[in-house]
Amino acid sequence: xxxxxxxxxxxxxxxxxxxxRDVSFDIEQGEVHALLGGxxxxxxxxxxxxxxxxxxxxxxxxxxxREACDNIAAxxxxxxxxxxxxxxxxxxxxxxxxxxxxxxxxxxxxQPALDTALERVALQADAREMRMQTYSKGMRQKxxxxxxxxxxxxxLLLDEPTSGLxxxxxxxxxxxVRDLAENGxxxxxxxxxxxxxxxxxxxxxxxxxxxxVGTFDRPAGMNRIDTEAVHAAFATHSSA
Amino acid sequence: MTGTMxxxxxxxxxxxxxxxxxxxxxxxxxxxxxxxxEVASERAIISELIDIDRAEREAQRELHRDWGSTxxxxxxxxxxxxxxxxxxALGMRDTSPWKHSIRALALEGQIYETDADNPDFALxxxxxxxxxxAMLAPLLLILLLHDVRSRERAAxxxxxxxxxxxxxxxxxxVRAALRAVALxxxxxxxxxxxxxxxxxxxxxxxxxxxxxxxHIGFWWGVCALVDRFCWSSPVxxxxxxxxxxxxxxIAPAVMRSAVxxxxxxxxxxxxxxxxxxxxxxxxxxxxxxxxxxxxxxHPQWAAYTEVSQPFEWKWYYAFQQVxxxxxxxxxxxxxxxxxxxDELAAKLAWFSPPTLVTRILQDIAGTSMKDSLDYEQRVRxxxxxxxxxxxxxxxxxxxxxxxxxxxxxxxxxxxSPGR
Lengths: 240, 419
Hints:
The structure holds two protein chains of two kinds. By secondary structure, chain A is an alpha/beta fold. Helix content of chain A is 36%, strand content 27%. Chain A contains eight helices and ten strands. Chain A has helices spanning 43-50, 72-78, 94-104, 111-120, 137-150, 167-182, 194-200, 227-239, and strands at 3-14, 17-28, 32-36, 58-63, 66-67, 79-82, 155-159, 186-191, 203-208, 211-217. In chain A, the strands form two sheets. Chain A has a six-stranded mixed sheet with strand order 6-7-8-3-9-10, sandwiched between helices. Chain A has a four-stranded antiparallel sheet with strand order 2-1-4-5, with helices on one face. In chain A, strand 9 and strand 10 (211-217) form a beta hairpin. Chain B has helices at 3-12, 15-63, 67-73, 119-124, 129-145, 150-154, 158-164, 172-198, 202-227, 233-262, 268-281, 287-297, 313-326, 328-348, 353-365, 369-395, 402-405, and strands at residues 76-79, 99-102. Classes of the chains: A alpha/beta, B mainly alpha. At the A-B interface, helix 2, strand 6 and helix 3 of A face helix 1 and helix 7 of B.
């Protein structure tokens, strides 16, 4: 197996405040990992560090074996990033948004591929040519997920990807994530959703106030991580 | 798809950007049309005055058959015709005279006369292309560029765009460049169209377009500098409007005040009063006193200074001349002071790009203070030629003939400044 993302004793400070402390984990190719934790746990900070927006105060954050902050262009080329509450351009429709961002990434944007991606995220066909300012939050999120798929990057960093999606769409999204992983994509997602994380991830890293306080693996032969164990750990740290 | 094409398509769908560009095109088009209208109006006035001037002189020829009366009653039209590029920068033509009716009397009482329809409007200035390019274009650019990056931060797209962009810096540079170029085109296209209608020279249009582009480039630099601080859109806008106020409004006001303090001018009213008194007092002075003062400057007429009659035209024109001589130091100081002020203002204009742009466009259009002073000098030269024509006829009491009258100088036959 090849290590695609690696955090080793990673500490990050923002505005003079330590927001990640000594966090370590490795993600192999084709794995889905979830960073779970409450507000201010350092989940999004971890993603931004892999993208090179933040530099480690100590330790390392490597993408495909190279330090992200020293190889920002390469890191971003390898990563498809879905920010929390991704706000695409409201004055453009779904196709125009996808074409714009794919062109920015110097990626191909053929119409059949766009339709396939939008079908995979279950965006209604009649909505695709409407301006996105008329979309619900869930519909906007679907287009952003479609963009991440279309990038065809080997790594996906997803920040609260199911935020705003209805339960059926969340199930569909979880299946999509598993499908992408089975096709060799490496996925790190950030979420508050314990149930969803347990169903989609191979491993969950529980973060609390910038520290890694627990790791939960999918048992061999099981289709999900033990939800109750994760819930219990999450609740313990949330109330601490 | 190239980055330029991508951002061009993006720009074409951004209603706010299109609105500002539309406004830029509209105000520029309006300023060019108003400028063309003003130039056409000035040319029509000049053309009409030329006809009136000619008809008036023909009428005077029949009415007066002596040199003294002819010189007294005949007005001579002088004018500074607008250049083909004057529509773009009306400049000093608003406040300084560009046409006169000159007689062979004392010049100082005539040369500062000007039409002023409404002095308040003259103070405000014209809405011409130079005003749009110098004052409004920076504001429009600020509105177009102040939130190129900060809007994306506020919308939560900044990280996504930066993470997706295949090359560092993209798409900010292309996006800002397209907006700046689009604004420049909204200014330059109406200017060139107006220039073609007015038959302006290609070199003038190219130079003016270059100045507009450089000015927009300067303000783009200011926007980029403010953008580096990563402030929010309202803070960026406030900082940029502050910079515009400082460079386009406050700096010129301070500079004007500094120039006026550094270079004092004689009072214009005093100049007129002294000249008027010198002329009026001459009626009460011994005629010999006037003629002596006159001969000091014109010794060639020393043999013709005897005045035996209570009124003689040569004495009358001599005291007109002496009136001008009396205020010559004041007049010279007034003119030199205006030249020094203009030179100092030209140096200080480097501290205010909008002022510099206005001055350069006025230079290209031939409507600057220097051009106004050049015209004033040409009027003085014409008046001197007129005196040189009349003095031999008056002092030698030559016979009045149509042939001799035909030799009288005319403004239109004098060498033009080459525009």
